[in-house]
Amino acid sequence: xxxxxxxxxxTATQQQIRDAYKKQAxxxxxxxxxxxxxxxxxxxxxxxxxxxxxxxxxxxxxxRDYDATRSFHDSSGTNAQDSDPEEEIPRQSPPGAFPWSSFxxxxxxxxxxxxxxxxxxxxxxEEMLRDEGLAEGREAQxxxxxxxxxxxxxxxxxxxxxxxxxxxxxGAVAGNRLGAVRDARGKSVYSVFLELPQGDKAKLLSxxxxxxxxxxxxx
Length: 219
What we know:
This protein has helices spanning 2-6, 14-28, 40-58, 60-76, 109-131, 144-153, 189-195, 198-218, and strands at 135-136, 141-142, 161-162, 169-170. It is mainly alpha-helical.
Protein backbone atom coordinates (compact mmCIF):
# COMPACT_ATOMS: atom_id res chain seq x y z
CA UNK A 1 0.00 0.00 0.00
CA UNK A 2 2.84 2.42 0.75
CA UNK A 3 4.10 2.24 -2.85
CA UNK A 4 0.61 2.84 -4.20
CA UNK A 5 0.06 5.85 -1.93
CA UNK A 6 3.24 7.51 -3.18
CA UNK A 7 2.62 6.26 -6.73
CA UNK A 8 6.04 4.65 -7.06
CA UNK A 9 7.27 1.28 -8.25
CA UNK A 10 8.40 -1.29 -5.66
CA THR A 11 11.84 -0.96 -7.27
CA ALA A 12 11.94 2.85 -7.00
CA THR A 13 15.19 4.39 -5.80
CA GLN A 14 15.34 6.34 -2.55
CA GLN A 15 15.56 9.59 -4.52
CA GLN A 16 12.49 8.66 -6.56
CA ILE A 17 10.61 7.94 -3.33
CA ARG A 18 11.65 11.32 -1.89
CA ASP A 19 10.63 13.12 -5.08
CA ALA A 20 7.30 11.29 -5.10
CA TYR A 21 6.69 12.27 -1.49
CA LYS A 22 7.28 15.93 -2.30
CA LYS A 23 4.75 15.85 -5.12
CA GLN A 24 2.08 13.90 -3.25
CA ALA A 25 2.48 15.93 -0.04
CA UNK A 26 2.18 19.24 -1.87
CA UNK A 27 -0.77 17.98 -3.89
CA UNK A 28 -2.73 16.81 -0.84
CA UNK A 29 -1.62 19.25 1.86
CA UNK A 30 -4.63 20.36 3.95
CA UNK A 31 -3.53 24.01 3.79
CA UNK A 32 -4.21 24.02 0.06
CA UNK A 33 -7.86 24.63 1.01
CA UNK A 34 -9.52 26.95 3.58
CA UNK A 35 -9.71 25.73 7.17
CA UNK A 36 -13.51 25.48 6.94
CA UNK A 37 -13.51 23.68 3.60
CA UNK A 38 -15.46 20.39 3.49
CA UNK A 39 -12.39 18.93 1.74
CA UNK A 40 -10.20 19.52 4.79
CA UNK A 41 -10.85 16.25 6.72
CA UNK A 42 -10.24 14.08 3.65
CA UNK A 43 -7.09 16.02 2.78
CA UNK A 44 -5.79 15.71 6.33
CA UNK A 45 -6.36 11.96 6.28
CA UNK A 46 -4.69 11.59 2.87
CA UNK A 47 -1.76 13.76 3.96
CA UNK A 48 -1.21 11.56 7.02
CA UNK A 49 -1.30 8.42 4.87
CA UNK A 50 1.29 9.94 2.53
CA UNK A 51 3.53 10.71 5.49
CA UNK A 52 3.07 7.20 6.90
CA UNK A 53 4.07 5.74 3.54
CA UNK A 54 7.11 7.98 3.28
CA UNK A 55 8.19 7.11 6.82
CA UNK A 56 8.09 3.43 5.86
CA UNK A 57 9.86 3.68 2.51
CA UNK A 58 12.37 6.45 3.21
CA UNK A 59 14.47 4.30 5.53
CA UNK A 60 16.20 1.27 3.91
CA UNK A 61 15.72 -0.96 6.97
CA UNK A 62 12.03 -0.13 7.41
CA UNK A 63 11.52 -0.54 3.68
CA ARG A 64 13.20 -3.94 3.66
CA ASP A 65 11.03 -5.15 6.56
CA TYR A 66 7.91 -3.80 4.88
CA ASP A 67 8.75 -5.43 1.52
CA ALA A 68 9.53 -8.75 3.21
CA THR A 69 6.23 -8.76 5.08
CA ARG A 70 4.30 -7.77 2.00
CA SER A 71 5.98 -10.52 -0.06
CA PHE A 72 5.08 -13.08 2.60
CA HIS A 73 1.41 -12.08 2.59
CA ASP A 74 1.33 -12.04 -1.22
CA SER A 75 2.85 -15.51 -1.46
CA SER A 76 0.52 -16.92 1.19
CA GLY A 77 -2.56 -15.41 -0.42
CA THR A 78 -3.31 -13.11 2.50
CA ASN A 79 -3.22 -9.37 2.75
CA ALA A 80 -3.39 -8.76 6.47
CA GLN A 81 -1.07 -5.81 6.37
CA ASP A 82 -3.30 -3.82 4.06
CA SER A 83 -6.63 -5.19 5.23
CA ASP A 84 -8.04 -1.78 6.10
CA PRO A 85 -6.28 1.02 4.19
CA GLU A 86 -8.84 3.55 5.38
CA GLU A 87 -8.14 2.94 9.04
CA GLU A 88 -7.09 6.17 10.72
CA ILE A 89 -4.71 4.71 13.30
CA PRO A 90 -3.47 1.12 12.85
CA ARG A 91 -4.50 -1.18 15.69
CA GLN A 92 -1.28 -3.13 15.23
CA SER A 93 1.56 -1.55 13.33
CA PRO A 94 3.02 -3.76 10.57
CA PRO A 95 6.80 -3.96 10.18
CA GLY A 96 8.13 -0.66 8.91
CA ALA A 97 5.12 1.37 9.98
CA PHE A 98 5.35 4.22 12.43
CA PRO A 99 5.13 2.85 16.02
CA TRP A 100 2.20 4.92 17.25
CA SER A 101 1.86 2.71 20.34
CA SER A 102 5.29 3.86 21.53
CA PHE A 103 3.71 7.12 22.71
CA UNK A 104 2.24 5.29 25.69
CA UNK A 105 -1.22 4.49 26.92
CA UNK A 106 -1.89 8.06 28.06
CA UNK A 107 -0.85 9.67 24.80
CA UNK A 108 -3.28 10.87 22.15
CA UNK A 109 -2.29 8.83 19.07
CA UNK A 110 -3.98 11.21 16.65
CA UNK A 111 -2.19 14.21 18.15
CA UNK A 112 1.09 12.30 18.03
CA UNK A 113 0.47 11.41 14.42
CA UNK A 114 -0.30 15.00 13.45
CA UNK A 115 2.85 16.21 15.22
CA UNK A 116 5.01 13.66 13.44
CA UNK A 117 3.38 14.43 10.07
CA UNK A 118 3.97 18.15 10.55
CA UNK A 119 7.62 17.68 11.52
CA UNK A 120 8.39 15.29 8.68
CA UNK A 121 6.80 17.55 6.08
CA UNK A 122 8.53 20.59 7.58
CA UNK A 123 11.95 19.04 7.03
CA UNK A 124 11.25 18.28 3.38
CA UNK A 125 9.50 21.65 2.91
CA GLU A 126 12.68 23.42 4.00
CA GLU A 127 14.74 21.30 1.60
CA MET A 128 12.43 22.26 -1.27
CA LEU A 129 12.72 25.95 -0.42
CA ARG A 130 16.51 25.68 -0.26
CA ASP A 131 16.43 24.18 -3.76
CA GLU A 132 14.42 27.19 -4.95
CA GLY A 133 16.72 29.72 -3.27
CA LEU A 134 14.03 30.65 -0.76
CA ALA A 135 15.96 29.39 2.28
CA GLU A 136 19.61 29.11 3.20
CA GLY A 137 21.91 27.66 5.82
CA ARG A 138 21.56 24.74 8.16
CA GLU A 139 18.59 26.37 9.91
CA ALA A 140 16.81 27.02 6.59
CA GLN A 141 16.43 30.71 7.29
CA UNK A 142 14.38 32.79 4.84
CA UNK A 143 16.21 34.58 2.05
CA UNK A 144 15.34 37.88 0.41
CA UNK A 145 13.72 35.90 -2.39
CA UNK A 146 11.41 34.21 0.14
CA UNK A 147 10.34 37.51 1.70
CA UNK A 148 9.81 38.99 -1.72
CA UNK A 149 7.54 36.11 -2.66
CA UNK A 150 5.64 36.29 0.63
CA UNK A 151 5.24 40.04 0.23
CA UNK A 152 3.79 39.46 -3.21
CA UNK A 153 1.38 36.85 -1.91
CA UNK A 154 -0.01 39.34 0.55
CA UNK A 155 -0.58 41.89 -2.15
CA UNK A 156 2.08 44.30 -0.96
CA UNK A 157 5.42 45.39 -2.29
CA UNK A 158 8.55 43.85 -0.75
CA UNK A 159 7.46 43.54 2.85
CA UNK A 160 10.94 43.42 4.30
CA UNK A 161 14.41 44.78 3.75
CA UNK A 162 16.91 42.04 4.43
CA UNK A 163 20.14 42.93 6.23
CA UNK A 164 23.45 41.49 5.08
CA UNK A 165 23.50 38.63 7.57
CA UNK A 166 21.10 35.66 7.66
CA UNK A 167 17.98 35.86 9.75
CA UNK A 168 18.19 39.58 10.56
CA UNK A 169 15.36 41.72 9.25
CA UNK A 170 15.29 45.48 8.99
CA GLY A 171 12.81 48.00 7.70
CA ALA A 172 9.08 48.06 8.21
CA VAL A 173 5.98 46.49 6.76
CA ALA A 174 4.08 48.86 4.53
CA GLY A 175 0.63 48.30 5.95
CA ASN A 176 0.22 44.69 4.87
CA ARG A 177 -0.73 41.53 6.72
CA LEU A 178 2.82 40.35 7.26
CA GLY A 179 3.27 42.33 10.46
CA ALA A 180 2.77 39.20 12.52
CA VAL A 181 5.89 37.58 11.07
CA ARG A 182 8.16 40.53 10.41
CA ASP A 183 10.16 39.93 13.56
CA ALA A 184 10.90 36.31 12.70
CA ARG A 185 14.61 36.64 13.47
CA GLY A 186 16.40 33.36 13.05
CA LYS A 187 13.25 31.35 12.37
CA SER A 188 13.22 28.71 9.68
CA VAL A 189 11.08 29.20 6.59
CA TYR A 190 8.71 26.50 7.83
CA SER A 191 8.22 28.25 11.16
CA VAL A 192 7.38 31.44 9.27
CA PHE A 193 5.11 29.50 6.92
CA LEU A 194 3.09 28.22 9.87
CA GLU A 195 2.44 31.82 10.99
CA LEU A 196 1.19 33.04 7.62
CA PRO A 197 -2.51 33.71 7.01
CA GLN A 198 -4.35 30.68 5.65
CA GLY A 199 -4.79 32.18 2.20
CA ASP A 200 -1.06 32.86 1.88
CA LYS A 201 -0.22 29.32 2.97
CA ALA A 202 -2.38 27.99 0.14
CA LYS A 203 -0.78 30.31 -2.40
CA LEU A 204 2.75 29.48 -1.28
CA LEU A 205 2.05 25.74 -1.45
CA SER A 206 0.56 26.16 -4.92
CA UNK A 207 3.62 28.13 -6.07
CA UNK A 208 5.95 25.50 -4.69
CA UNK A 209 3.91 22.64 -6.14
CA UNK A 210 4.08 24.25 -9.58
CA UNK A 211 7.88 24.46 -9.34
CA UNK A 212 8.28 20.88 -8.09
CA UNK A 213 6.01 19.46 -10.79
CA UNK A 214 7.79 21.53 -13.44
CA UNK A 215 11.15 20.11 -12.33
CA UNK A 216 9.74 16.59 -12.48
CA UNK A 217 8.46 17.05 -16.03
CA UNK A 218 11.72 18.59 -17.16
CA UNK A 219 13.94 15.90 -15.64
